[in-house]
Amino acid sequence: MGAAHTRHISSLAARQILLRNGRWMLRPSGKGLRCFSKIAPRWQADELQRTRNIGIIAHIDAGKTTTTERMLYYSGLTRRIGDVDEGSTVTDFLPAERARGITIQSAAITFHWPPEEVSTQGGGESPSTVPEQQRSAVSHTINLIDTPGHADFTFEVLRSLRILDGAVCILDGVAGVEAQTEQVWHQAGIYQIPRIVYINKLDREGSAFGRTVKEVASRLGGWPAVCQIPWLEGGNGRFVGVADVVNLQGLLWKEGGDGKSIKVFDLKQLETENSNLAEELKRARVALVELLSEYDEDIVEKFLEQDEDHLAVSPLDILNSIRRCLVEQGNKIIPVFAGASFRNMGVQPLLDSVVNLLPSPVESPDPEVSIGGIKGSLKQLLSGDLIVAQKETTEVKGKQKKKAALQSESQSSIEKLQSCALAFKVVNDAKRGVLVYVRVYSGSMDRNCLLYNTNLNVSERAPRLLKMYANDAVEVDSIPAGHIGVVVGLKHARTGDTLISYAGNKATPPEPLNTLQLRPIDVPPPVFFASVEPHSLAEEKKMQESLALLLREDPSLQVTVDEDSGQTLLSGMGELHLEIARDRLINDLKAKASMGRIEIGFRESVTAQSPAVTKIFDKEIAGRKGKAGCTVVVEPFDAAKAADTLGPPSEHILAIKVQDGNQIIILSPGLQVSTNNKGIAESPLLPTGIDVTTARNALYNGCMAALARGPQFTFPMHSTRVTLTLDPTEHIFGNETTSSALSAAARLATSSALRELASTSSTALMEPVMNVTISVDEDSLGAVVHDISSSRGGHIVSLDDDQGVPSSEEEATLVDPAKVYAPPDPFETSSSSSSSSLGASLPGTANRARTITAKVPLKEMVGYLKHLRSLTSGRGTFVMHIDRFDTMTAQRQKAVLAELGGYS
Ligand SMILES: Nc1nc2c(ncn2[C@@H]2O[C@H](COP(=O)(O)OP(=O)(O)OP(=O)(O)O)[C@@H](O)[C@H]2O)c(=O)[nH]1
């Protein structure tokens, strides 16, 4: 082994960033101290190609945090390796996360790989040319988003996914592909995010690289491109390193070290030192080149140039080929790497692969946008095409304008756009206040610019911009397109909001820019809720402020105040979701409040049409007289068949909108609506100061408030249509008709119509029904299916063995497992070696993984994990998301109500 050389991947002393008296200092290795008031921003335009915005996706406990900590350490960002088990990691920085040892909140961290001082300078690629050296020879900026792994946080995962250009999927080499990994993998597929797979924990007994590769093929729906194979001591013993299929090298880590010292063996050395591994490496190389030739013409050419010698194709040609496949063809092929992060093995080559294989922001797919209800891509928007299309559809009935005139009108509106960004995370930082993490998609977000929030329709300034390094930050003057940064000092922006800046000093951007949305997502309804009570009246204000902050961080939480009982209810996606919210509220934000029992969010619905109910509200509100009326009819509504539009007000129809499973239609015949020169819809029949939109919103909010509280059990209404009519001659009373009075009238009339139906038993209770995907071994399949269908009242939708290919994906590639290359696992190797007894003790490959898909009432899934574990000797896992709300049978309703207690 003497001929192998040792490579020190990163020098620890090389990059220490220290904060002294509020000044940033950078200490290059071996040199004196240099002081900077701030580190010069590294995001120059030409650096975009050397940037990777990536995320780590995985099942809970697969090792995301452990791997991230090593990445930060090897990049020189931290000086010691954090330990999840000790609670000292950098990325899991919420106290609640540290206590639970799981990642709750996405944190974005910037670091450089390879560290700047060990890479050669210059020579970075440009998007149009292929580099002449591996990209990992040059330092790149990596913005790493640590995504959460628990099913309750799916929306946090989705929100993080939208802003990524690439992802590393970490698998546990013992557990293989788990249900949740599969789910997140396919969600990333929706956004066409190129992904590579890292099989971790290969040091653990029972880990099986080959078996996991096969699972990648069958469950993730792509061809595994095995880029590394494990190096096991003596061929079947401890995991000591990896053999690199691309570079035809063996990488051997020093046992027990911090992983920086790696012995590198070329193929010749491997052939003499470890011929079995060398042979397997050659087989893997043949398989890799063959696989790439299926998808990439260029590699076929290189292969022919090399006289069809798989081993002679250059590593750079192979990397470029994999990259082309990933970027241009989606994940038809899935590059696979090996490691054991906890033992400090495998992380540096993984980082090289992030740089070498995953795309820069310039190469990632054009993001979807919506503007004025029209969908398209950002490029189309910026070129003006999208708005032209919109104007063509809306103006088709009115005066026809020439296409050229439309084009110049939309161009001038789009030219005003200076930047657009997505706020993907809001974090309340004890030291710096509320931090809003943004990904900028076009233009450049400058310090102090006015940002318009198109979700909330508010403008606010961006007083400070930061670049984040875990818990440390560097101030910058701007965040250009393609980059990730933090805005400090925003008062309104929430996770998921689109923020734009535009030319001119107007408080709102020109239409339709004010409706621009980047990669919009639908958040499903929350299915659990709990009451939140302040300890005293004096604590109420602080509690509400803390709740408001929680909602900015995580808009998949909802807060409602029951206007009759005054009770505050917090709703969320899962029990753990609400438990974490409670922790945040009480322990982190220090609200003096307590949370009641976590309960299932049932819904109420109507089964018949109500008579028309007219109500005139006539009372003082906050010392001012208010009088207004309206007529309401309530009836059953089927959301699946409805259009969701809240178009511009017309003469009769002020609004048609579907929200939370209900539909609200607001009519006002004879209102004489016209649009003034400022583009505002007005009516001479409305009192002064109230335009049509204000009246519409007031009525709409009144209906929504009434629907939040069902007439029989106080659960929110669902599958209900409210048709509200505002008759200007009967329901408007001059200046006494304030917007609060309109809202109160709408609420009164809707509640009263609902009560009418309750009095004739024309209401029903609905329950959340979940779409459940369960992963079990063949052995436990029968017991689990029986339990779901008989004890839990579930309906089995399908039983797939592991050959199934996911549906509706851009990459639904049919993979024949028999044709997938995977190196043999130790227990599969010939029985002549001493490994046969070892093989017998490892989990058998004959016990196939099976996937059960079922629809089950949520109530029957509470506490299911524990039960599943007991049915499957601890190996079963499941994920679920809401499918629909379903009306209960009379018998089930009776049983559920009896259990809930308090209802008769
Ligand atoms: N043996 C072994 N254990 C590992 C390895 N990587 C991680 N672990 C352990 O696996 C457990 C989970 O690791 P984490 O890094 O917290 O996993 P995670 O995916 O971040 O988990 P969440 O934050 O809960 O989503 C910890 O106890 C780690 O020490 C590995 O390579 N080998």
From TrEMBL:
Residues 49-362 form the Tr-type G domain. GO terms for cellular component: mitochondrion. Residues 267-298 form a coiled coil. The keyword Mitochondrion applies. GTP binds at residues 58-65, 146-150, 200-203. Residues 115-134, 823-844 are annotated as: Disordered. The keyword Metal-binding does not apply. Keywords: Coiled coil, GTP-binding, Mitochondrion, Nucleotide-binding, Protein biosynthesis, Transit peptide. One of its GO terms (molecular function) is GTP binding. It comes from the Eukaryota. GO terms for biological process: mitochondrial translation; regulation of mitochondrial membrane potential; ribosome disassembly. It holds the Pfam family EFG_III. It is found in: Mitochondrion. Mitochondrial GTPase that mediates the disassembly of ribosomes from messenger RNA at the termination of mitochondrial protein biosynthesis. Not involved in the GTP-dependent ribosomal translocation step during translation elongation. Catalyzes the GTP-dependent ribosomal translocation step during translation elongation. During this step, the ribosome changes from the pre-translocational (PRE) to the post-translocational (POST) state as the newly formed A-site-bound peptidyl-tRNA and P-site-bound deacylated tRNA move to the P and E sites, respectively. Catalyzes the coordinated movement of the two tRNA molecules, the mRNA and conformational changes in the ribosome. Belongs to the TRAFAC class translation factor GTPase superfamily. Classic translation factor GTPase family. EF-G/EF-2 subfamily. NCBIfam families: small_GTP. This is Ribosome-releasing factor 2, mitochondrial. The gene is MEF2.
